[in-house]
Amino acid sequence: MKNKVFSAQEAVARVKDGDHVMVGGFLQGGTPDVIVRELIRQGKKNLTVTSNDTGREGCAVYDLVFAGNVDRIIADYIGLNPRTGQMMIENPDSVQLFPQGTLAEKIRAGGFGLGGILTPTGVGTIVEQGKEKITIDGKEYLLELALRADVAMIRAHTADEAGNLIIRGTARNFNVVMAFAADYVIAEVDEIVPVGELDPDQITIPGTLIDAIVKGG
Amino acid sequence: MNSREIIARRVALEFQDGDVVNLGIGIPTLAANYLPEGVQITLQSENGMLGMGPAAEPEQATNDLTDAGGNPVTILPGGCFFDSSVSFGLIRGGHVDKTVLGALEVDANGNLANWMIPGKRVPGMGGAMDLVTGARKVIVAMEHVNRNGSPKILQDCKLPLTAKNRVSLIVTNLAVISVKKGGGLVLEELAPEVSAEEVIEQTGAPLEISPNLKPMPILD
């Protein structure tokens, strides 16, 4: 069996300057803080980050933005990260906001082999600017294109050595769709167990999607 | 009774037994404290849970179980967890009966603006656009006027919209106002010691007075 268990340093070394990195989590829930902090430590530059919210004080992704490693952000809510807000004021093109459900579906589409999705969310608002509108059965939808990344950093509670993941509670959030939508997927977990120990009925994310498993804090 | 409590108590009367409800942060969340006897609702939390319970005690608090504001909460028996795609499938797909949100502005056509003030504050829309687009009934719960005393209920919203034509009921500290299909506002109820004239004066759009205008049936 191919080894998937690495140190944070080894797993993050494969990330390149300029990469698009998706970071799972919802504020401080389900965030892969150890591997995101390793991005800062290794000084990865010019990153694009997709995140629900770019974190709040105490979150690694919050510190990543403050550390200046990020050139471009895709998110749905940035109200608790003033540095992201500052980036948006200085250069409106550097921060792209989508409705939360739209962001989740763009990522899901990217991971599920779809070109995009049609959503009624945002019709009649500034969110529709520059997007194609399609009418189906008399109802208007926006065409929102699929989103993929070079790297996904996600968080789970338990992994087996094959990468099968169990996530607890509300920590699922964006971690699930992001696991499908990147070329290189690193899962940070609390616990790593041998293959065969996890109940296949309880797996949240299939192990075949995971390239690297890192034991977190 | 302060104005937040008046609003929360009146909003709670909109819930029917068995409703799936998503409550915005602030006054809307308080409504869950005033459910009428015999009414049980299931709270949906956009970060991935049905059956959200009260705030967690410090010793049970975990980052694996939080509400949409990131605060540690509990889950009630019968509740369940899911990822963001499923959460917004529930919201956008019409599987949430009612959503209650605050507003910066709401207008006579049921348009809502509650996510940005251009040039000042752009926190992002989070899940608000999906909620207002997808929930079966959209209730706005807010103070009737803003901090400067200016009306928040207008003929046309001036701020960027959250969604078009989706609000059907407005509950404030002064009144309950319904939005007619096709547009137009109807004054339905008055808060304690508030007159129709006061409401009309503090509203930035014409109000039709309901033939059944009555006091808010707020429970003590």
Strand content of chain A is 25-35%
- Gap from first CA to last CA of chain B: 9 Å
Annotation, overall tally of beta strands of chain B: 13
- Whole-angstrom Rg of chain B: 17 Å
End-to-end separation of chain A in angstroms reads 26 Å
Tell me the CATH superfamily of chain B.
Glutaconate Coenzyme A-transferase
Low-confidence stretches of chain A: none
Oligomeric category: heterodimer
How does this structure look, described?
The complex is a heterodimer of chains A (217) and B (220). In chain A, 22% of the residues lie in helices and 29% in strands. With 217 residues, chain A is of the alpha/beta class. Chain A has one domain: Glutaconate Coenzyme A-transferase, CATH 3.40.1080. In chain A, the strands form 2 sheets. In chain A, strands 1, 2, 3, 4, 8, 9, 10 and 11 form an 8-stranded mixed beta sheet that branches. Chain A has a 3-stranded antiparallel beta sheet with strand order 5-7-6. In chain A, helix 2 (33-41) packs parallel to helix 3. The longest helix of chain A has 12 residues, at 100-111. Chain B has 220 residues and is of the alpha/beta class. Chain B has one domain: 3-Layer(aba) Sandwich (Glutaconate Coenzyme A-transferase), CATH 3.40.1080. Chain B is 16% helix and 30% strand. Chain B is built from 5 helices and 13 strands. In chain B, the strands form 2 sheets. Chain B has a 10-stranded mixed beta sheet. In chain B, strand 11 and strand 12 (185-190) form a beta hairpin. The mean pLDDT of chain B is 96. Chain A binds chain B through residues 26-31, 52-53, 56, 75-79, 85, 88, 97, 99-102, 104-105, 108, 119-127, 157, 168-177, and chain B through 45-49, 62-66, 68-70, 75, 81-85, 87-88, 91-92, 111, 122-130, 133-134, 160-165.
